[in-house]
Task: inverse folding
């Protein structure tokens, strides 16, 4: 199989990334490389390093066919090498000890600092309402999703993010517990047709220095 690990400079990656909706259905990305892509994606920042994301990788064709109508019959769902569902974990606090214990083991903080941080975090989260927690989770899953698409492009693959799908049906079909919020689906694979180029607003139309002008 052709080696598509073509690492590119960052400027090329961000300029050449496109939302691709047409994929070569015969091309497959190995599970090992998908794991590597996700590992690099999870280097994205998150609030207090909580990493409140989970991923379901659909690379089984029968399951992609099951996902197809849920995703409004978007052809890339069945043709791409895989579809990655990015979920937000509303109960991310349950992994606090694991995350900070690993930081102690790596020598990034002392056990005393870790215990102080965890105590502060737990008391802060106890006072937050559900809406604020969910907003933070959605923000962080957006960061990891964008990083995932850039990592894929750097390796020579193409992606498209899909927010237009039936999230309730997705949860029902794939038995997603209530603690997880489906955010976006990301198709990844080898383009059979290039994505359409798009334009952006001039930076002077969206940039303000030191406050909004009227």
Result:
């Amino acid at each position: 199989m052709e080696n598509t690990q073509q690492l590119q400079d960052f400027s090329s990656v961000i300029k050449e990334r496109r939302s691709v909706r047409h994929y070569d259905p015969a091309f497959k990305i190995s599970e090992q490389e998908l794991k590597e892509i996700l590992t690099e994606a999870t280097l994205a920042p998150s609030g207090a390093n909580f990493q409140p994301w989970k991923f379901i990788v659909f690379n089984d064709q029968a399951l992609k066919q099951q996902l197809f109508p849920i995703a409004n019959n978007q052809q890339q769902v069945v043709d791409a090498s895989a579809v990655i569902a990015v979920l937000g974990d509303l109960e991310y606090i349950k992994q606090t000890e694991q995350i900070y214990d690993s930081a102690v083991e790596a020598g990034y903080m002392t056990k005393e600092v870790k215990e102080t941080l965890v105590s502060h975090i737990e008391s802060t989260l106890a006072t937050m309402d559900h809406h604020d927690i969910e907003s933070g989770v959605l923000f962080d899953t957006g960061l990891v999703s964008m990083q995932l698409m850039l990592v894929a492009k750097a390796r020579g693959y193409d992606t498209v993010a899909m927010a237009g799908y039936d999230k309730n049906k997705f949860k029902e079909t794939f038995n997603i517990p209530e603690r997880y919020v489906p955010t976006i689906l990301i198709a990844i694979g080898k383009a059979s047709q290039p994505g359409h180029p798009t334009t952006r607003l001039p930076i002077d139309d969206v940039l303000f220095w030191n406050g909004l002008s009227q």
User: Anything to note?
Assistant: The chain has one domain: 10-206. The longest strand covers residues 180-189.
